[in-house]
Amino acid sequence: IQMSKRYGNFGKFTFTAHASGQHYFCFQTNSTRFSVFAGERLKLHLDVQMGEHSIGPNVDRTKDNLLTLESNLQHLIGQMTYITRQQEYNREKEEHFRLISEETNGKVLWWAVIQTFILLSVGIWQMKRLKDFFIAKKLV
């Protein structure tokens, strides 16, 4: 027996079984007279809900809150995916920019080496020409 309760002329109850399986409902009237001959009527309305159902009015609000929370969570997941993609894109752009910068730095280094070589070559050539000029004019 899960529940045994006495009611007056009118009664209403809600019962939630905490164990799954087969359940039997037994109803008994406490009247000592036979209702047909006494002019009274016995009326029984039985509404049985099976499965998971809301027990209180707050449960429906909780489900609405869960739906709102779920939609917010889906939105946050979408934003996280977007941010992750943006970070990956920026990482690729930064890597490409770094490669271009290193290539440019290498070219600038070689250009500076070539300019230094040309400057030294021209300087040595000028000194040789000037020395030959002074020897030809017999100033040295």
Automatic annotation (TrEMBL):
Membrane topology, record value: Single-pass type I membrane protein
InterPro entries: Emp24-like (IPR015720), GOLD_dom (IPR009038)
Subcellular location: Endoplasmic reticulum membrane; Membrane
Keyword entries, A-Z: Endoplasmic reticulum, Membrane, Signal, Transmembrane, Transmembrane helix
Protein name from the UniProt record: GOLD domain-containing protein
Species assigned in the record: Ataeniobius toweri
PROSITE patterns tied to this protein: GOLD
GOLD domain segment(s): 1-50
Keyword set includes Transmembrane: yes
One Pfam entry name: EMP24_GP25L
Keyword Lipoprotein: no
Family (UniProt): Belongs to the EMP24/GP25L family.
Primary localisation category: endoplasmic reticulum
Transmembrane feature ranges: 108-127
